[in-house]
Amino acid sequence: MSMELSRLTLDITDTFPIYEKYGLKSQMDRSAISIPSNIAEGSSRTNKSFSHFLDISLGSSFELQTQILLANHRKYLSVEKTEIFETKIEEFQKATMVFQNTLNRD
Fold first, then answer.
1. Longest dimension (CA), the chain
2. H-state helical runs in 14-46
3. How confident is the model at residue 106 (pLDDT cuts 50, 70, 90)?
4. Quick check: 76 and 15 in contact, CB under 8 A?
5. What is the average per-residue pLDDT within 39-43?
6. What's the DSSP call for residue 77?
7. Running DSSP on this structure, what letter comes out for residue 78?
8. How many C-beta atoms lie closer than 10 Å to residue 73's C-beta?
9. Distance from C-alpha of 97 to C-alpha of 81, rounded to nearest angstrom
10. CB 97 within 8 A of CB 58
11. How far lies 97's CA from each of 2, 4, 29, in Å?
12. How far lies 90's CA from each of 2, 48, 85, 94, in Å?
């Protein structure tokens, strides 16, 4: 799910205007890449540490969600693509929080 978000983001930001290369495109790419990267790094740690990395991943997903709304505002994303993105992010956030709660019980 997190890799899908990253791939979708990278594919879409490649369509942004060139002048956004170091602006919104860069911010969105970094947020999207951070999501699965922190999950991967945390997966080799203790449950407590993994939960911390999941927190960072969730934070990046909320950043990406905000950036998607800004991209829609700038007309880089259609309303339809924005809604698809938001749904995928919300699904990721819910699933991650449920998983995180199971880690914290141990």
1. 48
2. 24-42
3. low
4. yes
5. 93
6. S
7. -
8. 10
9. 24
10. yes
11. 13, 18, 23
12. 11, 23, 9, 6
Neighbours of 34 (CB within 10 A): 19
Half-sphere exposure for 89 (CA within 13 Å, toward CB): 25
Reported as type and span, the H/E element at residue 46 is none
Are the C-beta atoms of residues 41 and 53 closer than 8 Å to each other?
yes
Residue 88 tokens, joined: 């995928």
Band the pLDDT of 104: cuts 50, 70, 90: confident
**Continuous segment of H or E residues that includes residue 21:** none
Cα gap 26→36, rounded to integer Å = 17
Under DSSP, the state recorded for 23 is: T
pTM: 0.90
- Fill in the DSSP letter of residue 18: G
How large is the angle between the packed helices 2-13 and 47-73, nearest 10 degrees? 30
